[in-house]
Structure formats: C-alpha cells, structure tokens
Amino acid sequence: MQTKAYAAQSGTTPLAETVIDRRAPGGSDVAIEILYCGVCHSDLHTARAEWPGTRFPCVPGHEIVGRVTAVGDAVTRVAVGDFAAVGCLVDSCRTCASCGEDLEQYCEGPHGFCGTYNGWADGSGENTYGGYSAGIVVDEHFVLNVRHGEQDLAAVAPLLCAGITTWSPLRHWGAGPGKKVGIVGIGGLGHMGVKLADALGAHVVAFTTSDSKRQDAFKLGADEVVNSRSAEEMAAHARSFDLIVNTVAAPHNLDAFTALLRRDGALVLVGAPSSPHPSPAVFNLIFGRRAIAGSLIGGIKETQEMLDFCAERGITSDVEMIAMQDIEDAYERMLRSDVKYRFVIDMATLKA
Ligand code: NAP
Ligand code: ZN
Ligand code: ZN
What we know:
Blueprint: E1 2-7, E2 16-21, E3 29-38, H1 41-47, E4 64-71, E5 83-86, E6 89-91, H2 97-100, E7 114-115, E8 120-121, E9 126-127, E10 135-139, E11 144-145, H3 153-156, H4 162-172, E12 180-184, H5 188-199, E13 203-208, H6 214-220, E14 224-227, H7 231-235, E15 241-246, H8 255-258, E16 261-269, H9 282-286, E17 291-294, H10 300-313, E18 319-323, H11 327-335, E19 342-346, H12 348-351
Parallel strand pairs: 12-13, 12-15, 13-14, 15-16, 16-17, 18-19
Antiparallel strand pairs: 1-2, 3-4, 3-10, 3-19, 4-5, 5-11, 6-7, 8-9
Bound molecules: NADP nicotinamide-adenine-dinucleotide phosphate and zinc ion (2 copies).
NADP nicotinamide-adenine-dinucleotide phosphate binds at residues 40-42, 45, 161-162, 165, 185-190, 208-210, 213, 247-250, 252, 270-273, 295-297, 334, 337, 339.
C-alpha cells in the first residue's frame, strides 16, 4: 500500500515528503490511519545519524495515535473505527525469557526488538518506517488500546514514548508515597516524569537548566524545583533522593546528581546522548552503595497499564501542535530546550 510519509534521505538532508510501501494487513495485523504523532528527541538523534546505525530513508515517529481502518481475521482486541496507538516497538522474537516476561524491549532474540522505525522487520533486514506517515500496519500484539476521550487524542500520543519511558523506571524503582524522586531535564520525557511521579504519590523535585520552566514545573506536579546549574540549590538536596530519573539528551557531569542520592539510591539514565558523559566519580557510588542504572522504554503490557492509569486519572501530555512541514523547525527548537513540552504533528497536514 503506497503511503505518504516524511523521510530523511541522509543524516544531513532535511526531512521531506516521500511515498513508502506498507504491507497489506495479514491475519494478525491492524491497519491504522495515523491522526497524531509526537516528536521525540530520539527521532532527531536517528534522522540526523547522531547515533550509529541509521538506515535511510528514515521515517521517524514512535508516538502514534490513530484510527483502525482494517483488521486481519485473527485480530480480537481492536475493531475497525476504534482509536488505537503504537509506541516504540512493533515486533520481537516472542519466545525469549524477556519476551516471556512482557519485557519485549529487552528481547534477547537474534535481532532484539524491532523498532517502529529504523527496525529490522522480521529479521529480514527490511527497514521499518515510523509515524511521520499517513498510516501504519502493525501486528495486534504491539497495538495499544486508547481509553482517553477523542478530544485528548493528540495529547495522548506522547505517552507512547515519553510516558512509558519515565513510567517504567518509576515503577521498577518503586516511586510512590514516602519516596523522594528527582526528574532531570524538563522536556518531553521529563515533563511526563514529573506528572507520573506526582500521580504515583512521590515527593517530586524537578531539575531544570531553564529558569523559564520553573513555574511550569510546579504546575506539572513538582513539589520543589532546582536549577541544576546552581551549586547552592543542588547542595541543599545532598544525600536525600531515593531515585533520580535523568532525561537529559546531552553529555553532562553525573556526579552532581549521584551526590544527591541517599544510601542505596539510584540515578537512572534514560537520556541517550550521542557522546558519552564524563566518567562518574567512583567514590560517590561506593560511599553510600549508590547505583547508576539505565532503562529502555517499556514493554507492551506495561505501556497499556500506563495508558489505562493515565486515562483513569485524566493525565495527558502538554503539547504544541505542528504541521508536518514544520518538523525541521521543531527539531531546532528541541535542540534549544524550547519545547513546552512535546511537539505533536497533526497528520492531517501531511494528507492535505
Ligand atoms: P527533550 O524534549 O529535548 O528534553 C530534554 C531536556 O533535557 C531539555 O528540555 C532540557 O531540559 C534538558 N537539557 C537539554 N540539554 C541539556 C544540557 N546540555 N544540560 C542539561 N540539561 C539539558 O528530549 P526528550 O524527547 O525528552 O528525550 C530526552 C533523551 O531521552 C534523548 O536523548 C532521547 O533520545 C532519550 N530517550 C530515551 C529513551 C529510552 O528508552 N531510554 C526513550 C526516549 C527518549 P531543561 O530545559 O529543563 O534543562
Ligand atoms: Zn522516543
Ligand atoms: Zn524476545
């Protein structure tokens, strides 16, 4: 099926309109007309080949919400006309230990999980194309149900990556009542981290380098806000955090944050800069049995749990709608930390 899309042809060419081929839906497939797609910093890292391994043409986008237009015979969880969502992964081996534990993002099969874009479809080596397109065909196992109201659909899209990527470590490391949780970087991921940690009942501290975001951070649900460039403000929180989730997309000094962990606390890195952070000070870890860890998006079951939790609590993302044609401007603003707090593409602008 010929489908309109926006693609980068190389790491240095701006994204532009193109036509891609989507498979006809098979027995377990769901065809979705894409209504909205969020813009993740990973889209930019990949399209501009900042990380190794981008294959071109590259059609980014893994925060997808749309309407089901066709289903295969074996599909049971969604029907034509339903709203549905697709996140960061569209396949995995489904037989390894991680897949068996609903942790498809850590698939140990020969090809790992198959990303929604820049993934290896069926291990065949074929490139996958993401949500900057008019439609997508995805196996039912990787399609999420959307229980928010229709008026919220655009603001639901960022939950599919920014939401689950912060939710998963918050849950794994036990964010909740009585826990002091820090969120570093108030961008797409970070603003969802603040909302979700607050909804889980933790005491939330937002760390930002942008003083202009201070008031917003309180509105998002932070109990305290710290300018991470102020040594004085940072020192006031020494040895006090159970968990800090760090979403920053650029290399920086991690010691400033490990010093804020209490004994047995963890600094969890979800931001994935294209060049390494300076090596952390080992003594900061040894004295206090502190940990630095990482976390990757979330599995399908956990993503559905997060979506249902958000639907129940009325939680969505704070979004700024853009036209598909404005994607390069959006990337430039993202690089300046000038996003409040997630760009979402109105896919009608591609179809027009
Ligand atoms: P984003 O919207 O650009 O937000 C990143 C925020 O980090 C900025 O808004 C800014 O917040 C802060 N920041 C930026 N540069 C900084 C610097 N030099 N020093 C300190 N703070 C800085 O990006 P995003 O979409 O949230 O993604 C963040 C990172 O997570 C990216 O690297 C992305 O690829 C990665 N990611 C990882 C996963 C995963 O599974 N682990 C999933 C999705 C995305 P302030 O203005 O508040 O300082
Ligand atoms: Zn993402
Ligand atoms: Zn697997």
